[in-house]
UniProtKB/TrEMBL annotation, chain B:
The gene is cotA. It comes from Actinokineospora fastidiosa. It catalyses: 4 Cu(+) + O2 + 4 H(+) = 4 Cu(2+) + 2 H2O. It comes from the Bacteria. Monomer. Its EC number is 1.16.3.4. Residues 80-205, 407-514 form the Plastocyanin-like domain. The keyword Kinase does not apply. This is Multicopper oxidase CueO. Belongs to the multicopper oxidase family. InterPro entries: Cu-oxidase-like_N, Cu-oxidase_C, Cu-oxidase_fam, Cu_oxidase_Cu_BS, Cupredoxin, TAT_signal. GO terms for molecular function: copper ion binding; oxidoreductase activity. Pfam families: Cu-oxidase_2, Cu-oxidase_3. Keywords: Capsid protein, Metal-binding, Oxidoreductase, Virion. The keyword Oxidoreductase applies.
């Protein structure tokens, strides 16, 4: 494998999507009255936020090795959104928590498509 | 394959999605209720008086008619609540709030209620450790003269009386501020709104000996919101204005009815003259749906701490100071406020951080003079609070409080089910210790009859400072979960637990608790 940073980034983005999709699932279970759903949602928040930070590190590697900045820029935006999301959830600011959560997942899905659709590395004959 | 899109198109798509996200979030920020609030405001059709003009009324203390015997007549009356307007009310003994009952721990009393109102009634002593037969089950109606029982919801266990009923309260419980109010099936909210509420104080020697502010320096404050119609009457969006057959409110008010006039002890935004000394405020939120976050501030904006000494079910172990005190419907807080640092002539306003415009004001204290003060707030207030531990609990139950369907249409449900008097929702045994985990979709102040409980956790984290002590009503905020622990002791029988947003309660959000 010649571009390990790309494959690491793809793997982290994929794990990030999977973990993030769990969040609305646990929230829905919680709101049916299942108290454990809240604990899963809280654990999920820690997992998603941690993966987000890992993705930031992987994106820096992509930028350094492959000279691609967009993974870092979009991941930074996602990490900012997830940080806001974390505290909005803790503070019960549902007006922000619910739409921001939907948008964060939408952004992650777009990222997932972008990293798998094309190689991240620049081709031999110039830049996009 | 090389990337199929030009940099310009990528930026265009990214920009468009960013714009959609930003628009979405700012729309949420603009439309959302911040602070969040469950219910809809009913606007008065009459001009509202300026605040801090009306003197604070203190409800009269009810005189016994014999040893431990009281009589209360429920009747219609007319009061001047707003200046120059006549407001017809349903009352206990002709006044709103009703007369205050002063009682002693362990000394039983019997209150004979006589119903001269045009509708059936039920009296519940909120916070009372009361045998089921006197707890005011919603179908245990007291019918007015000439009324035939034709109640929509059939309940074979209902004990219906005509004209009068004796309610016996053993009062074998911690000293506390309780309140009595109507609890009739399907029509509790409009009945309380029309005036059927009064205070009931339980005291004992231990509490008297603490040296807390007393006499004129102990003030009961029953806070509630109302709205007034053009004719001076109380406005209420009932589907059946006669409050006889069809329960419920117009769809816009499904979340609860909020008024635009704040009454304290029945007077709009009143003012009370006080000495520059400590006062004990015994605060009850008797509103149907309105939550408050109380704070005391001087006119130049200095906060005056509210030192909480008691909760719904009596004294805390130790005082807890607050700058802001959230209070949900039916909750009580016992607080000491110290006016000694306020210059005579200054005013201290009690404000509501959850209010907007006029509902931001509650009442004012006008400090008139310096005066000696021998009261105190001891570091140890009580040593008899229950110390139930999770490990003692034999059962853990989960309940979700949320919107749902009822036989009357849209309403509110507990664990997916609307109230049915004939269904036992929780069966437990006398003496059992249980942990209940309560989850809410919007604001739901959850109340258990018969027992007090302690708050174990809120939102998966430790309880908040105002959750201290022994409570009988706990306020769940939107999406919030609370764990409580209690021991079902006292009496066997059929009791209730329910949301104390009175509109939610009327629209299905109650359940039965059978103790055997």
């Amino acid at each position: 494998m010649r571009r390990p940073s790309e494959w690491v980034f793809r793997g982290v983005v994929s794990a990030h999507v999977v973990a993030a999709v769990g969040q609305p699932v646990f929230a829905g279970v919680y709101l049916t009255g299942d108290f454990d759903g809240l604990r899963w949602h809280a654990v999920g928040a820690d997992v998603v936020t941690s993966i987000g930070l890992l993705q930031l590190v992987a994106a820096i590697a992509v930028w350094a090795r492959l000279r691609r900045a967009w993974p870092f820029l979009t991941t930074s935006a996602v990490v900012v959104a997830e940080t806001a999301q974390y505290f909005a959830g803790l503070n019960g600011a549902l007006w922000l928590h619910v739409p921001l959560g939907v948008m964060t997942i939408a952004a992650l899905v777009v990222q997932f498509i972008a990293v798998w659709r094309n190689p991240l590395a620049r081709t031999e004959n110039g830049h996009a | 394959m090389r990337e199929g899109m030009s940099r310009r198109r990528v930026l265009g798509i990214g920009g468009a999605l960013g714009l959609v996200a930003a628009t979405g979030l700012s729309t949420a920020a603009a439309l959302a209720r911040r602070p969040s609030m469950t219910g809809a405001v009913l606007r008065s059709a009459v001009p509202l008086p300026p605040p801090f003009q009306a003197p604070l009324p203190i409800p009269a203390v009810l005189e016994p008619v014999g040893d431990g015997r009281y009589e209360i007549t429920q009747r219609e009356a007319v009061a001047e609540i707003l200046p120059g307007l006549k407001t017809p009310l349903w009352t206990y003994e002709g006044t709103f709030p009703g007369p205050t009952i002063e009682s002693r721990r362990g000394r039983p009393i019997t209150v004979t209620h006589r119903n001269e109102l045009p509708v059936p009634t039920v009296v519940h002593l909120h916070g009372g450790r009361t045998p089921a037969s006197s707890d005011g089950y919603p179908t245990d109606l007291v019918l007015p003269h000439g009324h035939t029982a034709s109640h929509a919801m059939h309940d074979p266990r209902a004990v219906v009386t005509t004209l009068t009923r004796d309610y016996t309260f053993p009062l074998d419980q911690r000293p506390a501020l309780l309140w009595y109010h109507d609890h009739r099936m399907d029509f509790t909210a409009p009945a309380i709104w029309r005036g059927l509420a009064g205070l009931h104080v339980v005291r004992d020697d231990d509490e008297d000996d603490l040296g807390l502010p007393a006499g004129d320096r102990e003030l009961p404050l029953m806070i509630c919101d109302r709205a007034f119609a053009a004719d001076g009457g109380l406005a209420y969006p009932a589907l059946d204005p006669a409050l006889r057959e069809r329960p419920g409110v117009h769809a816009a008010y499904l979340g609860g009815v909020l008024g635009d006039v704040i009454l304290v002890n029945g007077a709009p935004w009143p003012v009370h003259e006080v000495d520059a000394a400590r006062y004990r405020l015994r605060v009850l939120n008797a509103s149907n749906a309105r939550h408050y976050e109380l704070a005391a501030v001087t006119d130049d904006g200095r906060p005056v701490p509210l030192v909480q000494i008691g909760a719904d079910q009596g004294l805390l172990a130790a005082p807890v100071p607050h700058h802001r005190l959230p209070i949900a419907p039916a909750e009580r807080y016992d607080v000491v406020i110290d006016f000694s640092q306020v210059r005579p002539g200054e005013r201290v306003r009690l404000i509501n951080h959850l209010g907007a415009d006029r509902t931001r004001d509650v009442m004012a204290f006008h400090v008139t003079r310096r005066a000696p003060d021998d009261s105190r707030v001891p570091d140890v207030l009580s040593t008899d609070l229950p110390t139930w531990r999770r490990s003692e609990a034999t059962t853990v139950r989960d309940f979700s409080f949320r919107a749902g369907h009822t036989p009357h249409g849209r309403g509110w449900v507990i664990g997916g089910l609307p109230f049915d008097p004939t269904r036992t929702d929780v069966a437990t045994t006398l003496g059992a210790t249980e942990v209940w985990r309560l989850i809410a979709d919007v604001h739901h102040p959850v109340h258990l009859h018969l027992v007090g409980f302690r708050v174990l956790s809120r939102g998966g984290r430790p309880p908040l400072p105002h959750d201290a002590g022994l409570k009988d009503t706990v306020s769940l905020r939107p999406g919030e979960a609370v764990e409580i622990i209690t021991r079902f002791d006292g009496y066997r029988g059929r009791y209730l637990f329910h949301c104390h947003n009175a509109e939610h309660e009327d629209m299905g959000m109650m359940a039965n608790l059978e103790i055997t």
